[in-house]
Write a structure and sequence with these properties.
heterodimer; A: mainly alpha; MetI-like fold; 2 domains; 12 helices; 0% strand; globular; B: mainly alpha; two-stranded antiparallel sheet; 13 helices; 79% helix
């Protein structure tokens, strides 16, 4: 029928159009990254369309700059510390609620949504208002907010893996077979949810590593992280700034790949 | 499990409750109180000031426009992109998702810098177009420049949220509809789209909230010059010239109310989709 032929043609055109769109998205997302990476390795790039030469000088200068290395270290320390505290105190709470108090989970979810809803700019006002008059160092206040702000990622990952392995039944079975609650948790439950927990932790780390608003407004240059250091270089040296961004992209790329590999492995395990 | 065991387990919740209280609830409450107080006590004056100042209102207007437009464009574009992914096998789709996730961490100050490299005053494209003799009179440091950056960080999030919603539509339904004589177009119009529509709307509100709360890229690009609600809060609380923390609190509370409405709306819409996807 002609009508159907028409429609087939339309569907075909639509398909081509959407594929072109997907390619355009890819170009749009890749272009700023590629340009910055190229800029980080180029000698002179002021008047010509393509760089005049390539060099490792900017990357080398960057890693010889103790101010950058220290700032990078502070970022790792701050984000890693917050994720560590979150694993120590938040994740056990998620376990307990999902396994033993499903009735409370509704309230827990509500707090997760609240945490997700309030961006750093709002939280920084609250932190400054409450803690600037107290003796608590502001950097600890920011760490505390970081620990809470990764709650959505931690909750999502932990809950999903607990559901996938049917955590409650697993715990009950282990206890029935004579394991203590602690043993059942350490030797049976933890290994089976470990991949999900690991991925959530990496995701949280990478989100916190890129955090700028809270640390800049609440603490500022007294605790110079990689993001704050980048901000100071933004207007002074384009090449150094692009070298910082390049290092940042490489780090995020490695984290993303590790996450994807772990997730794929965990998926394969479940299937068999 | 007996009751005492359950009580012991409950102790594990204490550190979490303390952290949540002291680093979330208490600061936000203190901000709320501060927004209603002056040296004499209770007052509405900060809200009156915020809502009658054309400068602050302009900031909200700019934020709203930027958020709605960037969320809408990112949503439409990624809907088409996610649809195009049906043409590929699962491993290829997963690889595309990994690449998209990689860029989802690329936001804030680094992203602003990358756009300066491309489109800044002596950016790659700016120079290239100059050498062709074209003057687009486009400025990265304006609303449309910010829009490009906002679309950039909205796209990966949008793809990440739409992918599972879209693939919740099961192949069986398409087959069943085809068997009953429905064309693909009819399937989408009568069955597919109505089911995923709340999910799409939910995604839109998350994108909207994401842009409303964004601060770093605009700050990195224009300092405190470009007028957005988040930028106003930042400059009033950090006090480049005059810190007005109570006024900052009032604006932050107003922004927070917008965020809460957005999140509740999206939660409700996404739950509705999930229910529909399971039911049918």
């Amino acid at each position: 029928m002609a009508y159907q032929e028409n429609e087939k043609g339309f569907v075909e055109t639509m398909k081509k159009f959407t594929i072109v769109m997907l390619i355009l998205i890819g170009i749009y997302l890749a272009l700023p990254i590629l340009a910055t990476a190229l800029y980080a390795f180029s000698t002179e790039w002021n008047k010509t369309i393509l760089p005049e030469g390539l060099t490792f000088e900017w990357i080398r200068t960057l890693f010889q700059d103790t101010r950058f290395v220290e700032a990078f270290g502070r970022s790792v320390l701050l984000s890693g510390g917050a994720v560590f505290i979150s694993i120590l105190f938040i994740v056990p709470a998620i376990f307990v609620i999902v396994l033993y108090f499903p009735a409370l989970e509704k309230w827990f979810q509500a707090s997760v949504v609240m945490v997700y809803a309030f961006p750093g700019i709002i939280l920084s006002v609250g932190i400054i208002r409450f803690y600037s008059g107290t003796s608590l160092p502001m950097i600890l206040a920011v760490t505390g907010v970081y620990v809470i702000s990764v709650l959505p990622f931690m909750y999502q990952g932990t809950r999903n893996s607990l559901r996938n392995v049917q955590g409650r039944q697993l715990m009950d079975a282990a206890e029935l077979l004579g394991a203590s609650k602690m043993d059942a948790f350490r030797k049976v439950l933890l290994p089976s949810v470990y991949p999900g927990l690991f991925v959530s932790s990496l995701l949280s780390f990478s989100v916190l590593f890129g955090e700028f608003v809270l640390i800049n407004l609440v603490v500022g240059s007294r605790f110079e992280t990689a993001q704050i250091y980048l901000m100071t270089k933004l207007s002074t040296s384009g090449h150094i700034a692009s070298a910082i961004v390049f290092v940042y992209i490489v780090l995020m790329g490695i984290l993303t790949l590790v996450m994807a590999t772990v997730m794929k492995k965990a998926k394969g395990m479940r299937r068999t | 499990m007996n009751m005492s065991g359950k009580k012991g387990v409950l102790l594990i919740l204490v550190p979490f409750a303390l952290l949540m209280t002291f680093f979330f609830l208490v600061p936000l409450t203190s901000m709320l109180i501060s927004s209603f107080s002056n040296s004499d006590g209770f007052t509405f004056e900060h809200y009156q000031e915020a809502l009658s100042s054309s400068y602050i209102l302009q900031g909200f207007k700019n934020s709203l426009a930027l958020s709605v437009v960037s969320a809408f464009i990112a949503l439409v574009v990624s809907l088409l992109g996610v649809y195009a992914m049906t043409n590929f096998s699962e491993p290829v789709r997963e690889r595309i998702l990994i690449l998209s996730n990689l860029t989802s961490n690329f936001s804030g100050v680094p992203l602003a810098f990358a756009f300066i490299v491309l489109l800044g005053n002596s950016g790659l494209f700016t120079l290239a177009l100059d050498s062709f003799g074209w003057d687009l009179s486009f400025s990265l440091y304006s609303w449309s420049g910010l829009l490009l950056i906002y679309i950039y960080f909205q796209l990966p999030l949008s793809i990440m949220l739409l992918y599972p919603i879209y693939y919740g539509i099961q192949q069986q339904w398409k087959d069943a509809a085809a068997l009953l004589g429905a064309s693909p177009l009819m399937f989408w119009r009568k069955i597919g789209l109505p089911i995923i529509l709340p999910g799409i709307a939910g995604t839109f509100t998350i994108l909207f909230a994401n842009a409303m709360g964004a601060y770093a890229s605009a700050y990195a690009l224009t300092g405190s010059n470009y007028n957005l609600a988040a930028i106003r809060i930042g400059s009033l609380i950090s006090g480049d010239i005059f810190a007005q923390p109570e006024l900052a609190s009032a604006i932050a509370v107003l922004l927070g109310v917008i965020m809460i409405i957005g999140m509740l709306l999206s939660e409700w819409l996404i739950k509705k989709t999930r229910k529909d996807l399971l039911k049918r």
